Amino acid sequence: MKIVKARAHTNIALIKYWGKKNTDIIIPMNNSFSLTLDHFYTDTKVTYDENLKKDSFSLNGEEIESQNVFNFLDYVRQLSGKNGFVKVESINHVPTTAGLASSASAYAALAAASSKAFGLDLSRKDLSRLARRGSGSATRSIYGGFTEWIGGDNDLNSYAKPFQENVEWDIRMIAAVVNSKPKKITSRSGMQTVVNTSPFYGEWVKNANNSIPLIKKAILDKNFTTFGEISEENAMKMHALNLTAHPHFSYFEPQSIEIMQAIEQLRQDGIEAYYTMDAGPNVKIICEGKNSEVIQKALKLKFPEIELLESKPGKGIQFLD
Asked: One MF term in GO for this entry (predicted)?
């Protein structure tokens, strides 16, 4: 018997991944760039036991028949050359499927723990490639801080690499949780509809790839204005694609828009903050630490019922005792 525990933090894409070249092994249309967050993470324990007759998976104490997880474990088993089965127990400290990228931390932790439990000793680059097979964004959660996913065009050259793991800049991310329930349109379904039907998709790919060297320079220069503007514009361009798809769709809820307008008003009042959104209604506010408290107070005053969760830059994959 072998037991391995791993922790992975989720990440927020500042330059989004929205569409696949290859849906089977998850090769993205464009490179993406993210910040790993300390507040949201998944702890996963994998027990390899030759006496087990099949794989099992539980999430937050509840047994789940997840074919995606079982397919992922089949692939790890194939890589290892072993025939045994595993028991997977995950605790998700992220609201699942609510646009807070829970799949990123989930599959990064599963990749790390399951590969080691099956006897593999993978480099972080290869763990990144493996995690990608479960969820595209998971490829970036192997690393801490700022990370780029090199899109590539095959299994070998599509992986993430760290840009700046030890972030010395006092960056904060405030998640305004508008709705923590599962979203009606999954990321996988939404992005494929956009790739297949949006007349503007080609321009999105070019613009996203061109934005990455610009946001890297802003980070190196500690130019928060440029950093925030690039992040906000990329997010809005992604969501604009959804409105140009057939059938068109949106992840925005009325309160999502109200929060974005509140952030724009704060900027006009001299408090610098920017927003980003993934596939879900929750708004993530990017700010510097010096402005975090005043931003949260302003939002709580206007939206007393919403939950605000603050994050700092987080760590990469960790193996736990």
From this structure: diphosphomevalonate decarboxylase activity
225, 217 Cβ separation under 8 angstroms: no
DSSP category for residue 154: S
Amino acid at 263: I
CB 76 within 8 A of CB 120: yes
For residue 121, pLDDT beyond 80: yes
Q: What's the rounded Cα separation, in Å, for the pair 70 and 76? A: 10
Specify the pairing of strand 85-93 against strand 32-49.
antiparallel
Position 184 confidence tier, pLDDT thresholds 50, 70, 90: confident
Q: How far apart are CA 99 and CA 16, in angstroms?
A: 13
**Prediction pTM value:** 0.95
pLDDT in tens, 65-111: 999 999 999 999 999 999 999 999 999 987 654 456 689 999 999 99
Dihedral angle computed from the Cα positions of residues 147, 153, 155 and 161, in that order, rounded to the nearest 10 degrees: -10
> What are the structure tokens assigned to 51, written together?
């006496």
Number of neighbours of residue 24 by Cβ within 10 angstroms: 8
**Tell me, what amino acid is at 48?**
Y
Residues 6+ apart with CB under 8 A from 266: 273, 295, 298
